Amino acid sequence: MALRGYLREGLNAALIMGAGDAIAQLVIEKKPFQDWDIARTARFTTLGLVFVGPALRKWYGTLDTFVSKQQSATRRGLKKMIIDQSCFAPPFTLVLSYVVPCINGEQHGRIVDRIKENYLSIMQRNYMLWPMAQTINFSLMPIQYQVIFAQIVAVFWNCYLSTKLNER
What's the predicted TM-score (pTM) here? Predict the structure, then answer.
């Protein structure tokens, strides 16, 4: 049963990350359809399947045990958001900032340089979107829908992140 949950979240993340990358290329980067890098979209999609979806499912399940259920939904949601955005978001974003260019064939030294250049601005953008989204998520959504809620918000985040992490 748990394996099906991880697979479901992986598939959801794969579809949403793939959509985010496709939108990033075709709308934000304004590539003509014939120049769409389908392999790049496939790599971003695969990352959602094997890493992002399962990692978020595990994290949200773990996070749910950290905060007492004996308080209001709003207070609980705020506490979970603070833990999420201080303990999970920074290392998760750092891993993605390394893995995406890595699976695109960039060399280690160049990736490290790009992280030094871009990581703080990515995190600044993260904090413009995710604290509010996660407060709503953790306060109002049942745990079984929290990953999919976050992934729906992540369509927009993934457009930005894909564009930023695929800059050459």
Answer: 0.87
